[in-house]
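Q: Please design a sequence for this.
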């Protein structure tokens, strides 16, 4: 998959100051390096900083949270260790308000609700299973959702996760509502999307700036992909 050079294509950068670098991550790009050895967002961002500020050595980039590889949307990176430790605190204490948009193949019923599951991750298969009852090995996961409306032959669902568990939105929509996310064959959708992404987009992040304490809100435009075209009407 062709991936943008963040230091030459400015459209991916939503905000930058001395402490934060906010990126609209394309689907298909890792946030942090893994066993594949593929270049992650963190390395591309570091290279962008080195290039922009003509740094002779490494630039600092801290990762406080992640998006799954096939997911697009807003990612907050720290440019200083102080900002990183405070961002980590905000995420840990659930003081970051996260909004996602998802496309599903059928309308969730009911159209608005709250889901609670206990999630158990299988690290070998890289999948997560959701249980409706308390599980001894499970982590409690909560989210709120509401159907924004129909988008072509799909349904646009707004999701506000209260916790931040691996694959949480993907498995909770599939297990709790029987509405897997478009393209997410791992959690029950019948066919992949042509670009092997899934129709899940981190639309918005709201939090108090870790250094200035200013209220911040970052909104990531939807990917310019055919499956998201009809959802543009909900801007």
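A: Design:
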């Amino acid at each position: 998959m062709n991936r943008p050079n963040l230091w030459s294509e400015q459209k991916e950068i939503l905000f930058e100051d001395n402490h934060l670098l906010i990126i609209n991550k394309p689907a298909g790009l890792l946030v942090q390096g893994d066993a594949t050895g593929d270049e992650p967002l963190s390395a591309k961002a570091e290279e962008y900083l080195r290039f922009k500020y003509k740094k002779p050595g490494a630039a600092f980039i801290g990762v406080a949270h992640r998006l799954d590889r096939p997911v697009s949307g807003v990612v907050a990176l720290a440019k200083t260790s102080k900002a990183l430790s405070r961002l980590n605190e905000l995420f840990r204490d659930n003081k970051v308000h996260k909004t996602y948009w998802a496309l599903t193949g059928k309308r969730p019923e009911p159209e608005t609700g709250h889901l609670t599951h206990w999630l158990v991750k299988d690290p070998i298969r890289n999948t997560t299973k959701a249980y409706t009852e308390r599980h001894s090995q499970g982590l409690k996961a909560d989210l709120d959702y509401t159907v924004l409306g129909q988008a072509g032959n799909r349904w646009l669902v707004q999701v506000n996760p209260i916790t931040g568990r691996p694959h949480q939105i993907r498995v909770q929509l599939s297990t709790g509502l029987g509405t897997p996310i478009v393209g997410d064959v791992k959690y029950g959708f019948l066919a992949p999307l042509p670009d092997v992404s899934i129709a899940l987009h981190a639309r918005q992040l709201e939090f108090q700036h870790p250094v200035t304490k200013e209220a911040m809100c970052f909104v990531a435009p939807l990917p310019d992909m055919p499956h998201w075209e009809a959802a543009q009407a909900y801007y």
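Q: Thanks. Anything notable?
A: The chain has one domain: 13-234. The chain has a mean pLDDT of 93.
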